[in-house]
Each structure stands twice: as structure tokens, then as C-alpha cells.
């Protein structure tokens, strides 16, 4: 049952076994699994409920509805554009559906350097197998490979790099290219059409337009959650309040949202790591003018990926290269217009070439951590893009530039404030070294946040234990990428779902 904000006529107190805050990959998976295990579950989601009927394929409309910050939220100094979902299904509703398991080397790092237990290959593999079945994860075929993807494949191969198919969570994809506006065909296997749909069938009560505000405590035990009802049209509080009494509360408000919720509960006083160790995979991109049509906004965004540089190469403490996935980019015309540099005639000239514009993007595996703190009650996200992250960002630009020239790009456009452009491969090093990484001079997106309530055994340096329970509490859990000790080095959705299966089993064990 899905109930929206306008359907609440008065304040109410409701009871259930488990309240789950957030309905993205973490919350939807945990809620569905807990329902399968026999629990009475309520999902509290502050965003709206939108379905295929609402996904009108208009960028401005959909950005306003399902992007958490309406496309306008940035880190505090303007360095990073924060992209996240704010709707039933969370960011998966506008994700690309790239579906990687957590690489074994990353799980080994988490075990060996961060001491994680119970989240290794053997524990996660059965969950990954089921998730892949349920989301129809498969390798895309040639028909689902647009021209930009072919070029990334050809260029990577020509340069001798490891290029691989990107596993995709899709069923009956019609290649519209509107993945980021919500799939109007229900082909993309977002949480909305998979785990939320299944949770709904199992009797989970899903409340959209309902913002979790505060926890009521009895000693170390959370006794109830107070949530405010929002008006679906204005997103403002209606004045109605729900009190949800539960035996356990699972916070799955996303990598940007979960640390903020815990900070607002004052938990950093005893758990100083709340809001620290934030990662977000900053994404440097390059636009490229070709002599042939690319039409980057059609078909699936990522069918091929350069995996050669996923793990950074270090010589002792010295960074050599890598630490990112390199992907084809996909931007719809409106977004392209927003991110291409210039105004007036120079911008119009670029837009006139739009069909021939391609591009690439890289997810940087954060080397420097960020943080989120509260300032006057509002979140302030700090993400460093100079230092070690800056080395990776510049290297990713260099490799993207090499690949794009290799496959015949006529001109590269870095999209920075100085409008750096390049027409010859011999100029790559000088151009990239000259890009100013100071705040607000580049367009770097951040679609993969986490780490802000990381997992560990020590309450001084971590927030949740290996059973996903917040240290020092009896029944408060976290089930999203906020628990990861570092970024997973690939797109995170499958890792989040795998961890959430494990979180659900711990909650179940505690309630038994
Ligand atoms: C454009 C884009 C493309 C992406 N592409 C891919 C991809 O191809 N593959 C991949 O693996 N990943 C991709 N990602 C990332 C992936 O979508 C996310 O990492 C994942 O969906 C996050 O799931 P989550 O459960 O952690 O959080 P979210 O999906 O962010 O869900 C958290 C939910 O909690 C809600 N919430 C927050 N605070 C409260 C509160 N106080 N009360 C109630 N509700 C609250 C939010 O509204 C939100 O709906 C992409 C992301 C973006 C933005």
C-alpha cells in the first residue's frame, strides 16, 4: 500500500515491527527482505511517489520532481554538483542501471584494512546472485550500444586498455535514452519496479511525502520515530505529524541523507565519525566534437567501460595513475546546453553541432575524504577536489582526452570556467595541467555518495558495527552506502543492495 502526503487527514500514531527511513537501493531492499522474513514494515520516504505515467521525458520537469536538489545542490564551495534522488525508489529512479558487484579486491581491502567482518565475498555472493536475477542484470548487446559507446570501446582497445561490457539492470529496454528522467517504459529495473513493487505485494506500508524528523528514545533504545507529512505539490510541511512506534528503526536515507539524519539526532556527540569520511566519486567529464553524428542522448548510457584504471597505481606513497572507471557520457540536450561553456554566439555555435557532440566521464575513487556537518541545522557538504583527488581528476582528464583523440575527435571541450579547449593530442598534458581546480571553476558531478556513518568496531572512528547497528544503541540500524569504509570503486547500487540483505538479516536476528 502506497499512501501519499495529501491522504493524511490528521495526526496519527501507528505501530509496526520495523520502520525504514528512505526507499532507495538500501531502504527498499532492506524493507522487502524484512517483509519476506515475516516482519510488519513501514517505509518512510520524504520524496514523492512517481510512476511511468509521470515520467514525461522532459528534462526540466523530471529534474525538478525526482532530483533531490532540483539539479542545483552543490558542495559548500561550489566545487561539486550533488546529484541524488528524492522520491519513492530514490536515486535508482534516475540512475543509469550499471550493475557491478563489489570487486573482490575492494572487499579484501575492507576486510584487511578496515577490519570488516561478515561482508566478504562468501557472504555477499548469494545475495548478488539473487539481486542480479531479480533485476535481470545482463551484458548489453550490440543493438544497445550507441555510437559513443562504440567509440569508447574502439579507443580503449586501440590504446591497449582493458575495456569491458557494463552489466545492466534492464528488461525490454526500448533505447529511448531517458534513463535519468525516470523510465517511462518500466524497462530500467529501478527499485520502483523491483524491490518496492515486491515490498508492496508483501504488505509493506509505503508512505511517500513523509519526512523522518526525530527519534524518541527510552535509554539506548529507539521507541518511536516522529515524521512530518509534506504537501506533495509544494514539498512544504502540512502541519500533520505521524508517530511511528517500532521495535527497530533502519536508516537508509542515502549517502548524503543518512549522516544528516543522525547528526540531527545529536549522535555525533558520542560518535564523532558521524558525517566524517564522506566519499562521492567526483566525476570529471570532457565533451568532444566529432565529424560524424554521435547523438549521445539515445540508447543506454553505458554499454562499454574502460576498466583499466579502476584501481590506482601507486609507487610506494606516490600516485602514478588511475583510480577511476572511464565511461561514455550521456547528457540530454537541455543538460548539455546547461553544461557547455559560453553564452551567446559561441554557445549557439556549440549547440548547432549538438548531434556531433560526444563525450566521456570518469567516477573518481575518492582518495581524500569529505565531510558533512550542520550549519544552522542545514547540511554543509565539504568535498576536497585538490590534493590526492585532484591528481586523479587530472589523470582521468588526460586519459579521456587520449581516448577521444584516438577515435577522431576534432575538438575537446573541458567545460571549465576558462573554457579550455584542445585540438591536438600533443597539447593534452599542458592543457590538463593548466586547468584551475579551485572551487566553482569546473563541473564535477557526485552521484555516488557514502561513508558518512561508516562501519567498524570502534565507536571513536566508526558509527555502526558489523551488524549495521549504531554503536551504543539497541535497535537503530543503517542500511545504505553510508556504512562503506571507502567508495566501492564501481557504481555502487549492487553493493548497497548486497549489504542491505545482510543488514536485514541482522535486524531479523535481533527481533527473533
Ligand atoms: C544520475 C545518476 C546516475 C546513477 N547511475 C548509477 C548506475 O548506473 N549504477 C549504480 O550502481 N549507481 C548509479 N547511481 C547511484 C545510485 O543510484 C545510488 O548510489 C543509489 O541509488 C543510492 O541508494 P540509497 O538507498 O543509498 O540512497 P537513495 O537512493 O538516495 O535513497 C535515499 C532516500 O531517502 C530519502 N530520505 C532522505 N532523508 C529522508 C528523511 N529524513 N525522511 C524520509 N526519507 C528521507 C530520500 O528522499 C531518498 O529517496 C546513479 C546516481 C545518479 C544520481
Short description:
The protein has 12 helices and 23 strands. The protein is α/β, with parallel strands linked by helices. Flavin-adenine dinucleotide binds at residues 21-27, 44-47, 83-87, 90-92, 94-98, 180, 211-212, 252-255, 257, 261, 447-448, 480-481, 491-493, 496.
Question: What are its keywords?
Answer:
single chain; about 500 residues; alpha/beta; 8-stranded mixed beta sheet; binds flavin-adenine dinucleotide
What is the topological layout?
Blueprint: E1 2-3, E2 12-21, H1 25-36, E3 41-44, H2 59-66, E4 80-82, H3 104-114, H4 121-134, E5 137-138, H5 147-158, E6 163-165, E7 168-169, H6 195-201, E8 205-207, E9 210-218, E10 221-230, E11 237-251, H7 254-264, E12 285-289, E13 304-306, E14 313-315, E15 318-321, E16 324-328, H8 333-339, H9 344-352, E17 357-364, E18 371-375, E19 378-382, H10 387-406, E20 411-413, E21 421-422, H11 428-434, E22 444-446, E23 476-478, H12 493-511
Parallel strand pairs: 1-8, 2-3, 2-11, 3-8, 4-22, 11-23
Antiparallel strand pairs: 5-7, 6-13, 9-10, 10-11, 12-17, 12-20, 14-15, 16-17, 18-19, 20-21
